[in-house]
Write a structure and sequence with these properties.
mainly beta; five-stranded antiparallel beta sheet; 32% strand
């Protein structure tokens, strides 16, 4: 059977192309020329609908291209397809092939498919044939649903409520939603996570616009600590873009960086000191803008700048400003930005109002108790040059802090120990740092559309002599792999060789505004890349919305071959396992932001590609499994075949949230191995949760024993139970021939009408009748 498809949702390019084809035919006829020669049929689209437990409908759009065209569908199990392709596939319809005519407009054809096995994956395609050739369509997937399967979390996971039940009537907010900020970060090793909330609860010492908490897992529950620092009222300026006091945490959450509040809490003038008093034992000088490093084990604070660091400072506390710029993952080295001269070799450029020029920043590195180190020294210079910026939020600082990439006046530099070097491709443009190896020995930068590799010591290599680079998605930990995009597609460079990963350009959000803040993730070994795209047909899936026809954004995983170049596979991890077109799209969290102005965005990216790069976490507003019934966003996990509980050749998609919560759920972060997967939801997933937006962990092998639920009561029914009567012996039991035996007393049996009391048989007393009940739940 076939029919003409709806034109709604077809791209304007396609409409223009069809229009040009018609005009060309008319023009040809007008001049007496022959009509353009017919061609082999074109497969415009292929997708399934109505996928059930044992049946589905196969659909396709075919353009006959001017010649009489027939078609049929082929299908085979996924296992057979992986072994032999479509060799030996079943053909439908089984009789003669339907003819769809000779037109040049796409024709929608459909074919019912029955007799399928429940919970089984199949591959199918359409094959169109005319006198000019045979055109097989792309292979598509159909996965039938499993009958009557309740929600079962993958990998033996269990839900654990991480945030406390008692939250002072509040809830937990997502990262970036509290004054443009908020820190939500999981420990790499699992079993701990930090989060922000606009509500103060627990043992609070202060209550700014956002309080900060750390939850840790114990043997029987999660415990939450309020780590908000003491502060005076209004000590932190709360604007739509001010962010939250805590800036970021170390990878293991053992330490955290906190700013000490704004100058001029009323925000009416810039000429006043910080009014929050120094934290006890921190060594911070009063009134100066500063940062504290919190030891999350002991709860103690240490000022990043002490009086000895401010010894050469000419500015008073009312004129001094300081901003966090970047840090090593363990926070042992922190880079700060200020226009003030804090070292003898720094220059301070005067500005207005007694302060220095904020456009002429200096960069300083603080490492433990060591003196400040000025970063922005140009090559062969002994005095700093103001106007410096850290090159990027991600990987501009090596993990040991010895190498720092920075920019000054549009040029890129490396500070390696006590030596500075220029980093330039020699094209006379503005080099833009993209990423680097963890040790900083190899860096990648772009200049005039070219991607360059820089090796510390001076060697520069143009990896793209023809140019055309649109952006960089990321690099491996050792710098031997780097992924970049051009208008022609996505490319992988590995140790001197380049190969095309996919023949389309991924969405710009994967790499802009810089590699550090995009959505893309590259595995440590460089062989795996997660990215988002709305490109139609990528990964053998038709991602056009089933209702509107508009392409939806999906999450993809690229796996490079073992050799690193040449080939590779692309898997849509967020696409409907059934193979049906989506009703909504999917997403992964990008780099967390923490406000604007002096609260710069920090460099933490939630983990989405975990384990040995065989697990991907994401959020989807589409129902990818039958148990997702809330028609809202939910948190999901994809895992490769043979990983965890997955036995399907193409991988498995499963909910990690409930799929039933009225307000949905969103994935927020995971441990490095993926055993902890955290999400926010307003659903009550355990009996003790009274309802609110809470943080949950879908933990492998997790789930605590739940206390029995209490029976709710209302009004007077909530009174305590009356005391137990003195004589608990029931006096209303009726004797039957097979009833309870009579009570025995010293070997004797009490007579009828007697009961046992103090080892004696006494006459049974008659009980008075209860008074009638008044209003429900109480007594008159």
């Amino acid at each position: 059977m076939h029919e003409h498809p709806h034109m709604h949702g077809r791209s304007s390019i396609r409409r223009r192309a069809s229009g040009f084809a018609v005009l060309a035919v008319l023009a040809s006829l007008a001049f007496g020329a022959s009509v353009a020669r017919a061609a082999g049929p074109t497969i415009q689209a292929t997708w399934p609908t109505n996928v059930g437990s044992s049946s589905a409908t196969m659909r396709a759009e075919i353009k006959p291209e001017g010649a009489s065209t027939v078609f049929h569908f082929e299908y085979v199990t996924e296992a057979a397809f992986l072994a032999n392709g479509f060799a030996g596939a079943s053909k439908l319809p089984s009789g003669s092939e339907p003819n769809i005519g000779t037109g040049i407009v796409p024709v929608l054809v459909t074919q019912p498919l029955g007799g399928l096995k429940s919970g089984t994956s199949y591959r199918f395609r359409v094959v169109a044939i005319n006198s000019e050739g045979t055109s097989p369509g792309p292979p598509r997937v159909i996965t039938t649903t499993e009958v009557g399967q309740p929600l079962q979390l993958p990998d033996g996971r269990g839900w654990e409520m991480v945030s406390p039940i008692e939250k002072n009537g509040g809830e937990i907010q997502a990262a970036g939603t509290i004054f443009g900020g908020g820190v939500l970060q999981a420990a790499a090793g699992g079993g701990a996570i930090t989060f922000s909330s606009t509500y103060s609860f627990g043992a609070a010492q202060g209550s700014p616009g956002a309080s900060q908490y750390v939850s840790r897992r114990a043997s029987s529950s999660w415990g939450t600590e309020n780590i908000t620092a003491p502060a005076i009222s209004g000590g932190y300026f709360e604007s739509p873009t001010s962010g939250v006091p805590y800036q970021l945490f170390s990878t293991d959450l053992s330490s955290a960086l906190l700013n000490n509040g704004r100058r001029c809490r009323t925000n009416t003038t810039s000429s006043c000191p910080v009014e929050n008093p120094p934290l006890a034992g921190s060594g911070a000088p009063a009134g100066y803008r500063n940062y504290y490093r919190r030891d999350n084990g002991s709860g103690s604070f240490k000022a990043m700048l002490t009086s000895s660091d401010l010894g050469t400072l000419a500015l008073g506390p009312e004129e001094f400003e300081l901003a966090y710029a970047g840090a090593t993952p363990d926070l042992s080295q922190v880079i700060f930005s200020t226009c003030a001269a804090l070292t003898a070799n720094a220059i301070e450029v005067p500005g207005s109002g007694g302060e220095c020029d904020p456009e002429k920043q200096n960069l300083y590195e603080k490492s433990g108790a060591a003196p400040l180190r000025l970063i922005n020294l140009l090559p062969l210079q002994s005095v700093g040059t103001p106007g410096a910026l850290l090159a990027a939020q991600t990987r501009a600082i090596s993990t040991d802090g010895s190498r720092v990439y920075w920019t000054q006046a549009g040029k890129l530099f490396l500070r390696d120990g006590e030596t500075s070097s220029g980093v330039d491709g020699g094209l006379g443009g503005t080099p833009e740092f993209q990423t680097a190896s963890l040790n900083g020995a190899i860096a990648f930068f772009t200049e005039k559309g070219h991607l360059f590799q820089y090796e510390a010591g001076g060697s520069v290599t143009d990896l793209t002599p023809s140019g055309g680079v649109e952006g960089v998605l990321g690099a491996s930990d050792d710098g031997s792999y780097v992924y970049y995009a051009t208008i022609a597609g996505l490319f992988l460079w590995h140790s001197g060789a380049t190969s095309e990963a996919i023949a389309i350009e991924p969405a710009a959000g994967n790499y802009q505004p810089s590699a550090g803040t995009g959505f893309a993730r590259v595995s440590g070994d460089g062989r795996h890349l997660v990215f988002v795209s709305s490109e139609v047909g990528l990964g053998n899936y038709d991602n056009r919305n089933a209702e509107s026809g508009t392409p939806e954004q999906e999450v993809f995983l690229y796996n490079a071959p073992a050799t690193g170049v040449g080939g590779g596979t692309v898997t849509c991890v967020s696409c409907r396992p059934s193979g049906e077109r989506p009703l909504a799209g999917a997403s992964i969290p990008g780099a967390s932001f923490n406000g604007g102005g002096y609260n710069l965005p920090h460099s933490y990216k939630p983990r989405v590609l975990v384990g040995s790069s065989n697990r991907v976490f994401f959020s989807s507003s589409d129902a990818l499994v039958a148990q997702d019934t809330n028609k809202d966003q939910d948190a999901y996990e994809w895992e490769a075949a043979g990983v965890g509980s997955c036995a399907k050749p193409s991988g498995c998609v499963n909910l990690i949230s409930s799929g039933r919560s009225e307000g949905g759920a969103s994935f927020v972060d995971a441990s490095a191995d993926g055993s902890d997967a955290y999400f926010l939801t307003d659903g009550s997933l355990i009996l003790a949760d009274p309802g609110a937006v809470d943080l949950y962990d879908a933990r492998v092998g997790g789930g605590f024993p739940q206390p029995p639920s209490t029976i709710p009561c209302f009004g007077d029914a909530c009174q305590p139970l009356p005391p137990e009567p003195e004589d608990p012996t029931p006096g209303t039991l009726r004797s039957t021939s097979r009833g309870n035996p009579a009570a025995a007393t010293n070997g004797k049996t009490c007579k009828k009408g007697q009961v046992k009391k103090k080892n004696k048989c006494v006459k049974k007393k008659k009980h008075k009748k209860h008074k009638k009940h008044g209003k429900k739940g109480g007594h008159k």
